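can u pls check wat happens w/ magnesium ion
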Amino acid sequence: MNMEKIKMTTPLVEMDGDEMTRILWQIIKEELLLPFVDLKTEYYDLGLVKREETKDQITIDAANANKKYGVAVKCATITPNRQRVEEYNLSEMWKSPNGTIRAILDGTVFRAPILIDSIRPVVRNWKKPITIARHAYGDVYKCTEYRVPSEGKAELVFTDAEGNETFRKTVYDFECPGVLQGSYNKDSSIRSFAHSCFQYAIDTKQELWFSTKDTISKQYDQTFKLIFQEIYDECYKEKFEELGIRYFYTLIDDAVARVIRSEGGFIWACKNYDGDVMSDMVSTAFGSLAMMTSVLVSPDGNYEYEAAHGTVTQHYYRYLRGEETSTNPMATIFAWTGALRKRGELDNLPDLVSFADKLEAACIKTLDDGIMTKDLTGLVIPEEKANVKAVNSKEFIAAIRERLEASLA
Ligand code: NAP
Ligand code: MG
């Protein structure tokens, strides 16, 4: 095809990754991006080999580049465990790159499913995606806890920086053994979370729901509720009203009931534990992990787009043995389109935005035409089963390219 490539002005921060997703990354670039876009990226190889070589400095550099340029796209990466330390002969069990990047950007992760007509959510009335925002800091994930061995008194004590004991409260007078837990959160972290949520709601022009258990937790959860309300009133109310979107706080129990009865199309902000559990429930109910997108949004408006799934290790081992794999590249492609669209919006490049839209549409069209990877074929509704053809990753991407070329011509 002979056409002018779409120009970019600011580079996109490109974070390469590991295993099967690293293989797909290359194919996606070669087949779906480079022929059409004069792709400008600042490349960071977050593959485990490079992380080891640089003592993980590459991850920090990539996160700082994300801060500098504003938009990044990331491939799935291995979070090393003991087995990986052996497999890759690592000098250290490097931390999760996502954790490192999130800590540097101070961001919140938003996860949303990609929907197609032939795969129906388990909840029949869900018609639009439900995006979950999880406050990935503190609470039970950073708690201190132990088993209480015997009868005795448990107290909650706070000593200020000058050494004055300002609070001492009895948690429970134990008459028998039991369990005890102390958890915390910080206003600064809750504020960042709130800013990211309001910001992303405005970006995507969706309602924002937030829920906690403030009726029971009159200080802890109440603080979350009050901070959200204060930030909304101060910084975002006007913009929300202008866009005709709503900020809506409700008790978590009520939120669950409403979410189930809803048709989707909103962002649900959750505390850490609620978000952990609810995001697994929502993603399973929508279909497949391979169709789940993810974006990290920082409170000051930096974005890192990725797929929610991992490096699909089992498929990679099959690939290394020379076997054919049918790994689904959808969420990884949508990470690219999300990042390109955002870059286009920030740099005022309508052609780039339109390219992102067309690439997404070509992906959906491919699936609507019944061409899919194996993970999806089993999920298709019975009426459509006869029209479905399972293909390998390369064939799937080639089918997307055909449709993309047709729509660009
Ligand atoms: P995973 O890579 O998401 O894969 C789990 C299973 O889900 C796969 O075995 C596969 O099932 C299915 N699956 C996931 N994505 C798929 C896709 N695109 N196409 C088709 N099937 C897909 O999770 P994991 O096996 O727990 O983790 C593997 C590695 O990824 C680990 O080293 C972990 O640290 C890393 N990880 C990274 C991230 C990240 O970078 N954001 C997130 C999670 C995990 P079948 O085998 O049944 O086909
Ligand atoms: Mg979970």
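The chain is about 45% helix and 20% strand.
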